[in-house]
Design brief:
The protein is α/β, with parallel strands linked by helices. It has 8 helices and 7 strands; from the N terminus they run H-H-E-H-E-H-E-H-E-E-E-E-H-H-H. The protein is globular, with a radius of gyration of 18 Å.
């Protein structure tokens, strides 16, 4: 089943567009609801994070640590191949991943698709953030994140700091075994710094400068970063809708 889905890009997109989901973009309460209210027959809900990105897994598990959930990730299902992100938006890509993983495992799947949008570059790298520099030879054997950052800083070399406005965007999708899903979005605005600063986080964190904090996300410990993260904002919105999703199983 999974391999047939994975091997047919058009069918994946068709599946993603075929579902009648529940979308939500409104402002959220800073206090997420108690997941325990959604439990059935005192069973602890099991969810799977549809990612192998260790940075995302660490952040999501940390954000969900106060809720009564049994959390798995794709490392627990090594037979699942990489899922091609053929969507044209963050939401489409997150939905593709969540749907495939939920159908394969029979579990509620949580997937996010995130990226950096730089205003002066008309929103680039956007949905291509994780593979932004794949068109440039990596002659210095940099990590993927370092290679992407190097390309972006090179493009912005002559752009003054005041014109380096950008935002980190996340769309999270939770997809249940009945084919219902919920979505939520989170955005954090900032600037692209002139140089990389800090070794924490992942992705573009070392060059994403939060003007309110006076630091890059790479300089923040995880505990502090999650208070301002685009991913936290999206996840809190998603948790508000959790009973709607879980009660339909």
């Amino acid at each position: 089943m999974l391999r047939s889905l994975y091997g047919d890009k058009n069918y994946l997109i068709y599946l993603a567009n075929d579902i009648k989901g529940i979308s939500m973009d409104s402002s959220f309460n800073l206090q997420a609801p108690d997941i325990k209210t959604t439990e059935k027959n005192n069973a602890i809900p099991t969810v799977i994070l549809a990612t192998r990105n260790t940075g995302k897994i660490q952040e999501l598990k940390d954000m969900l640590c106060n809720f009564k959930l049994h959390i798995l990730c794709l490392e627990d299902f090594p037979e699942i191949p990489e899922i091609e992100e053929t969507g044209k938006t963050f939401e489409e890509n997150a939905l593709i991943k969540a749907k495939v993983v939920s159908q394969y495992t029979g579990l509620i799947a949580i997937a996010d698709d995130s990226g950096l949008e730089v205003d002066i570059l008309n929103g680039a790298p956007g949905i291509y953030s994780s593979r932004y520099a794949e068109d440039i030879p990596n002659i210095h054997n940099l990590t993927i994140d370092q290679h992407n950052i190097s390309k972006l800083l090179s493009i912005l070399t002559n752009v003054p700091l005041t014109q380096r406005t950008a935002k980190l965007c996340t769309t999270i999708v939770a997809y249940n075994t009945n084919g219902k899903y919920i979505t939520a979005k989170g955005i954090t605005k900032g600037l692209i710094s002139l140089t990389s600063k800090g070794n924490n986080g992942f992705g573009y964190d070392p060059i994403f400068f939060d003007t309110n904090l006076g630091k890059t996300f790479g300089e923040l410990p995880l505990k502090e970063k999650k208070q301002y993260s685009h991913r936290t904002k999206a996840l809190k919105k998603l948790l508000e809708l959790w009973p709607t999703l879980y009660n339909e199983i």
